[in-house]
Amino acid sequence: MSIKSNIEEIKKELNPLGVTLVAVSKTKPVEDILEAYEAGQRIFGENMVQELLEKQEKLPQDIQWHLIGHLQSNKVKYIAPFISMIHSVDSLKLLVEINKHALKHNRVIDCLLQVDIAQEDTKFGLDHPEVIELLESDEFKALKNVRIRGLMGIATNTDKEKEIKEEFYELKMLFDGIKLSYYRKEDSFDSLSMGMSADYILAIEKGSTMVRLGSTIFGKRVTKHFKAK
């Protein structure tokens, strides 16, 4: 299957459901991204700021770049001029930094709050009380150059379907609660980014509006780590 046919198949599945596809292009060469672009894909997700900057310069300027990996405050200035959405906002400090650089470029940057839903220590993200604390804080309310579009979460890397479903369900409940309490009158709070190649079907079942797919589109990554037998 080619990248083009993979995208066509996935969009056939996602479009009727109103689910947005973020093509995860981290580690992928420019040629592969162009093939996806020529198939009509415009939203691409990168993990690393340096890699994103290199690709952004070489590729068509109407691509909407999403930063989906952990973002350090000192890297915000590099992506502020062009980034479409940052999925991985996990602190008020980071949000303040994004706001500062968005203001410099006379932009409002769309952000998702990353919520830690996984049963793993390796994941970043806010817990439920921290999300509420952030939204309630006067410092947050004063920020005019960031717009919270929704939430993002990464499920536990496990074969246990029940566990994954419960994590996605929990995030959807939090999303609905925040929508009702803080964004009831704002149509822009509309994005629940959950689901990757291994679990996106389960994520959509539980209410995801945005999935981040890499290997489903581009094939498996070359840098494969084999488990010891």
The CATH topology turns out to be TIM Barrel
Give the mean pLDDT. Answer: 94
Helix and strand composition category = alpha/beta
CATH architecture: Alpha-Beta Barrel
**What spatial order of strands do you see in the largest sheet?**
1-2-3-4-5-6-7-8
- Overall number of domains: 1
CATH class (first level) name: Alpha Beta
CATH superfamily: Alanine racemase
- Rg over CA atoms: 17 Å
Question: So what's the overall shape?
Answer: globular
Distance between the termini: 30 Å
| Main sheet attributes: strand count, strand direction, barrel closure | 8 strands, parallel, barrel
What's the SSE blueprint?
Elements: H1 3-14, E1 20-24, H2 30-38, E2 43-46, H3 49-58, E3 64-67, H4 76-79, E4 85-89, H5 92-104, E5 109-115, H6 128-136, H7 138-141, E6 146-153, H8 161-182, E7 191-196, H9 200-205, E8 210-213, H10 215-218
Report on the architecture of this protein:
The chain has 229 residues and is of the alpha/beta class. The protein has one domain (3-218): Alpha-Beta Barrel (TIM Barrel). The chain is built from ten helices and eight strands. It has helices at 3-14, 30-38, 49-58, 76-79, 92-104, 128-136, 138-141, 161-182, 200-205, 215-218; strands at 20-24, 43-46, 64-67, 85-89, 109-115, 146-153, 191-196, 210-213. An eight-stranded parallel beta barrel has the order 1-2-3-4-5-6-7-8, surrounded by four helices. Helix 5 (92-104) links the parallel strand 4 (85-89) and strand 5. The longest helix is centred in the last third of the chain and has 22 residues, at 161-182. The protein is globular. The two termini are 30 Å apart. The relative contact order is 0.14. Residues 222-229 have low confidence and may be disordered.
